[in-house]
Amino acid sequence: MQAFAYNTPGSVADAVKAAALEDSKYIAGGQTLLQSMKLGLIAPSALIDLGAIADMKGICRDGNAIVIGAGTTHADVAASKEVQQAIPALADLAGHIGDRQVRNRGTLGGSLANNDPAACYPAAVLGLGATVHTNQRKIAADDFFVGVYTTALNDGEIITGVSFPIPEKAGWQKFKQPASRFSLVGVFVAKTAGGVRVAVTGAGANGVFRASGLEALLAANYSAAALTGATVPADELNSDLHGSAEYRAALIPVLAARAVG
């Protein structure tokens, strides 16, 4: 691995100042960044470790929402009594990301900033209609995910936390790729104050997306039976060695029905 400077700022403001160095990268849990560096895909001149910023960690309830700091690990989200009680589907999702090592190192903010097209957290954020907080602004979930590995974040902008509205009902189902445990297809369904939302990860050629056809069916009748015979177009879905676009299209309504329960 190439040589690089290493910074451990104690605040978000200090992290932003450190990022002024040319070709520097923020690092949270390092589950993707370090692997990319080892493979020689990227060679930053400096790493800015966000792990020491206490204000970016923790979980609390704020009115009718659960607010989770961007530096909070998947394991902590899964183990949180507040999350388990308010949004059990979110705790379940976090508890099945990767393996135990990944869950104890990976963070909410790191996952969202990387926006892997098969990552689990984007489905929860989009499915619950969450709000992403940064050091500059607040970004609605529908505006945050732009494309594969691409978000609405500006250069140097840092995710500081996410506010998840507490839904009336929610469920998560994941058909995982057995080696990586990433979602071959993952579906998060939520009945919220603003309506029914169905978010799909692992299947879309452009990353996480909402299945509007399934949302309409569930808005009329929020039950698994409402999705009997439902279909999803395969036109804009992934096709790879793990499964064809048609296979993924067939999985989506099945997993959505299971998520509804």
UniProtKB/TrEMBL annotation:
Chaperone among the record's keywords? Answer: no
Query: Is Flavoprotein tagged as a keyword?
Result: yes
Q: Which GO terms describe its molecular function?
A: FAD binding; oxidoreductase activity
In terms of Pfam families, this protein maps to: FAD_binding_5 (PF00941)
Per UniProt, which keywords does this protein have? FAD, Flavoprotein, Oxidoreductase
Domain named FAD-binding PCMH-type is located at 1-169
What SUPFAM superfamilies does the entry give?
Answer: CO dehydrogenase flavoprotein C-terminal domain-like, FAD-binding/transporter-associated domain-like
The domain of life for this entry's organism is: Bacteria
Q: PANTHER family per the record?
A: XANTHINE DEHYDROGENASE SUBUNIT C-RELATED
Q: What is this protein called?
A: Xanthine dehydrogenase family protein subunit M
